[in-house]
Design a protein that fits this description.
Blueprint (H helix, E strand, L loop, with lengths): L1 E6 L13 H10 L6 H20 L4 H11 L2 E8 L2 E5 L1 H13 L19 H11 L3 H21 L13 H13 L3 H14 L14 H21 L15 H5 L6 E6 L24 H14 L5 E8 L1 H6 L16 H5 L2 H11 L10 H4 L2 H7 L2 E5 L1 H8 L10 E7 L4 E6 L14 H12 L5 H11 L19 H4 L12
Parallel strand pairs: 5-6
Antiparallel strand pairs: 1-4, 2-3, 5-7, 7-8
EC number: 4.2.1.3, 4.2.1.79
Pathway: Carbohydrate metabolism; tricarboxylic acid cycle; isocitrate from oxaloacetate: step 1/2; Organic acid metabolism; propanoate degradation
Subunit structure: Monomer.
């Protein structure tokens, strides 16, 4: 890996295009280095993981509405949409599938200087692969690139410090991945990256206060914009440049300002793209920084006994966890029994309370309105607070995988005055956790989430095809989707009439 210093340059300053971060990323995308077997196998795992969480969300309102929009755009050759037969315009297929994948907050994650869900790259890159008639080998190369670029940007550039949403790293990574998939030249990919970043930079209000369904729509929008950016770049249309480093560029006006400097690591020429191996998926349908606290809660509940004896709970954790999903956010909505699912998903206080009471977590039952409004849950929930601990913050930012942590130390004080303390650094499903996810866990997750939604024979067909993704022909790539019976989709709320018919 080579580190690249990224800073603002005045318009009058000599700054060759070959030194622009967008150009360097485009060079990485255009470098058709072979994908290593370990990387390919993990890509297959994440294709299965994405499909699992997508089918579990098929009947939810935001997903049904996004699907209705996509189904209004049939197209040939086109791309597939989860749950539905037929082919659709690739940018709209990317949109619908992106919402389905993101709705339950249940797929993979990478946390460093910034947050990310790198699996959000899969819907747009797969949609373009299906539409453009590419085979499994091209898809694998494109996905390895998408993951690599998003992870590298997340390592080097913090967005949330400046209240910019993390999908600002997704637009460029998806554009780069599509460029790699199609074997485009550096110039075309460079222009697509610039356009994708320019159109997908937004504030973090989508994840603050009263969190709405846009939390799931935001990454899908970034993927859709990446598809459209590549289309325009292929037609010869350019992008604002230098997009990151310009005098009025992203760094100067939206991030650290004209004097800020960032260091972004990128693979050297000929170096394989391995970043997906540093990412991790979720066992529980909740924000990643609550994964370890869920496992910690189910471990501690036996030591507590009668939960009514709890006087207070303090979760000592990192700056990120405290300020994003903890009491450091200052969001009263995080204690509101009538809050949206999206808001509850970003309340570690609610999540820890339910996990303590239930001994686990369920992607539907744990968020049900009647569950959130249970008097005993509300009472326990409001006894919980978070506190930033410098050591947990340091470990959160550590570059040593053996030391990096996303967990917490729980101090539970009982009415008797007894204090019960335990801590967990990483979730059980993390590569360094108690039960690291392997292929069998991904398959089991798919089977569990597809139960009652996808017919067993269709489950078997999809899993067989997915596990040989790299060998698929262009004709077979359309099989990397899942269809369901019409009565399953009928369970979803009926989408009101919009602009598209």
């Amino acid at each position: 890996m080579k580190n690249h210093l990224v800073r603002t340059h005045r318009s009058a300053e000599r700054f060759p295009r070959e030194e622009h971060l967008a150009w360097r990323i485009a060079e990485v995308a255009a470098d058709a280095v072979a994908v290593e077997p370990r990387t390919e196998q993990m890509i297959v795992n994440r294709i299965i993981d994405n499909a699992a969480v997508a089918v579990a969300a098929l009947t939810r309102r935001p997903v049904a509405n996004a699907r209705a929009q996509a189904l209004a755009h049939p197209y040939r050759p086109g791309a597939t949409v989860f749950g539905a037969p037929g082919r659709f315009s690739p940018e709209w297929a990317a949109w619908a599938n992106g919402v389905a994948v993101r709705e339950l907050d249940f797929h993979d994650t990478f946390l460093a200087a910034e947050y990310s869900h790198p699996g959000d790259n899969i819907p747009p890159i797969l949609a373009v692969a299906q539409h453009a008639g590419r085979g499994g080998r091209d898809l694998i190369r494109g996905l390895a690139t998408g993951y690599e670029i998003q992870v590298d940007l997340v390592r080097g550039i913090c967005l949330h410090e400046h209240k910019i949403d993390h999908v600002a790293h997704l637009g460029p990574s998806a554009a780069a991945g599509i460029g790699a998939l199609l074997g485009l030249d550096t110039e075309t990919i460079y222009q697509a990256i610039g356009q994708a970043l320019h159109t997908t930079t937004a504030t973090r209000q989508s994840r603050k206060g009263e969190i709405s369904s846009w939390k799931a729509y935001a990454p899908a929008f970034a993927g859709k914009m990446a598809v459209e950016a590549v289309d325009r770049a292929l037609r010869g249309e350019g992008a604002p440049a230098p997009i990151w480093e310009g005098e009025d560029g992203v760094i100067a006006r939206l991030l650290g300002g004209p004097d800020a400097e960032y260091v972004v690591p990128l693979p050297s020429p000929g170096e394989p793209k391995r970043a997906i191996l540093d990412t991790y998926t979720k066992e529980h349908s909740a924000e990643y920084q609550s994964q370890a606290p869920i496992d910690l809660a189910r471990r501690m509940r036996e030591r507590i006994g009668d939960l009514d004896q709890i006087a207070s709970i303090v979760l000592h954790t990192s700056h990120h966890t405290h300020h994003v999903i903890g009491t450091g956010s200052g969001d009263p909505q995080k204690f509101d029994p009538h809050a949206s699912r999206e808001t509850l998903d970003h309340s570690v206080m609610y999540i820890f309370a339910v996990a303590l009471q239930d001994g686990g977590w369920h992607h539907e039952r744990s968020y049900a309105p009647e569950r959130a409004r249970r008097p005993d849950t509300v009472a326990l929930w409001r006894k919980i607070s978070t506190a930033e601990d410098p050591e947990w913050t340091r470990r959160y930012h550590s570059t040593d995988p053996a030391e990096k942590a996303f967990g917490a130390r729980a101090e539970i004080t009982l009415r008797s005055g007894e204090v019960i303390v335990d801590e967990l650094a990483v979730a059980d499903a993390h590569p360094l956790g108690a039960r690291p996810f392997t292929r069998e866990h991904y398959l089991a997750k798919f089977r569990t989430l597809a139960e009652g939604v996808v017919a067993p024979a269709e489950q078997d067909r999809f899993l067989e095809v997915a596990q040989r993704t790299g060998e698929l022909s262009a004709d077979e790539l359309s099989e990397l989707s899942v269809t369901v019976a019409p009565d399953v989709l009928d369970r979803a709320p009926r989408s009101p009439q919009g602009l598209f018919r």
